[in-house]
Amino acid sequence: MEMQALVVDDEAPARNELIFMLENSKVNFRVREADNGKKALELVNNHNFDVIFLDIQMPSLTGLEVAAEILKVEDKPEIVFVTAYDEYAIKAFELNAVDYLLKPFSRKRFEETINRVMSHSKKDRIKDTIKINKAISQLTPELKRIPVNSKRGRIKLLKPSEIYYATTEGGKVFITSEEGVFEFANGLKELEEMLNLPQFFRCHRSYLVNLSKVKELIPWFKGNYYLIINDESEEEIPVGRTRVNELKKKLNL
């Protein structure tokens, strides 16, 4: 997942060092830069940043003044203050900063900040997903949407009719849809309960399939079956032996 970062500092060497560290971080950052507060606010109004690294002492607009303006933005990015002065720390956290980097800082300290940013963002996404799931559970089938993790930490809403199938892999749930493959924040059982529509069938303990997207049913050895998905990949989805009879009833076989 690519994250959008903005580095704001009136000193070019400081900006360049931070940009280098971000671009060589374990997280995939796309980085923009600004050398003053006014340019920073212009960029914030035109881009959806995940995190902003903000120097405090700058001419014209200080970092604290810039942060106060950013708090008015609807989709607020995380803010990390970067400064050589520790007397601003209390004020920084009053402005909901996720961290406060004191110059000069080590690579280890920088990575701690990245972990904090990622953890904070993940918690917010989980809270948002829970709220969305609750609202979706009250919708009619025509309005139902499934929230999935998209790029830049956004939550995308899929129509059930767009979903081919969902599967578990490495403890995570992935939904294959007409728009691509997306990660679902909860388990396969929770997804099955959310969909709760006639066309969706739990054909295997690791698969939930949209039967309206199936083009073939292939008999296999020992009474097993495979479902062939009607897409370019023609993915073969296994049917568990204990689910075969239920599948036949659904398909009137």
From the structure provided, what is the oligomeric state, counting identical versus distinct chains?
single chain
- Counting structural domains, the number is 2
Helix-residue proportion: 25-40%
Number of helices: 7
Tell me the structural class: alpha/beta
**Radius of gyration, rounded?**
24 Å
Taking pLDDT < 50 over at least 5 consecutive residues as the criterion, the unreliable ranges are none
Mean pLDDT level: 82
- Tell me, what is the CATH class of the largest domain? Alpha Beta
What is the H level of CATH, i.e. the homologous superfamily of the largest domain? Response regulator
- Number of DSSP E strands: 15
Overview of the structural elements:
The chain is of the alpha/beta class and 253 residues long. The mean pLDDT is 82. It has helices at residues 12-23, 37-46, 63-70, 89-94, 107-136, 188-195, 244-250, and strands spanning 2-8, 28-34, 51-55, 78-83, 99-102, 146-149, 155-158, 163-169, 172-177, 180-184, 200-204, 207-210, 214-219, 225-229, 236-239. It folds into two domains: 2-125, 3-Layer(aba) Sandwich (Rossmann fold); 146-250, OB fold (Dihydrolipoamide Acetyltransferase, E2P). The strands form four sheets. A five-stranded parallel β-sheet has the order 2-1-3-4-5, with helices on both faces. The protein has seven helices and 15 strands. A hairpin with a 2-residue loop joins strand 11 and strand 12.
Short description:
By secondary structure, the chain is α/β, with parallel strands linked by helices.
